[in-house]
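Run log, item B.
One chain of 107 residues. Sequence copied directly from the ordering sheet:
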Amino acid sequence: EALREGLEALIAPIQWESYRVKRVCPSTLSAEAISMNRSVSELEFVQMQFAEMTDPNFNFRDVKYRSKGIVVTDCKSLYDVMVSGHGLPKCKRTALEVMCLRESQKE
């Protein structure tokens, strides 16, 4: 209601999507890492979009607009590889996906 009246209000955008990965994946870990990377990219896009709408001095290169989001998985192998912080999957593509995820969570 507050937003409709032009007042400030807390918001929490949530998105969920089920889709088929369009790439052949050698493992569940690979498919889940690809999906999580896509989700993190969507999160960053929404953060930038919101910052652009609310800050007249918005500059997309400024890291102050990036905040950590909460990403959740039900894939134990992805959780383990993300939480452990060491070791990478043997599949090179999956390893790249995991490294991208780790990097995005550092910021």
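Observations after the first pass:
- The radius of gyration is 17 Å.
- The mean pLDDT is 83.
Flagged for discussion on Thursday.
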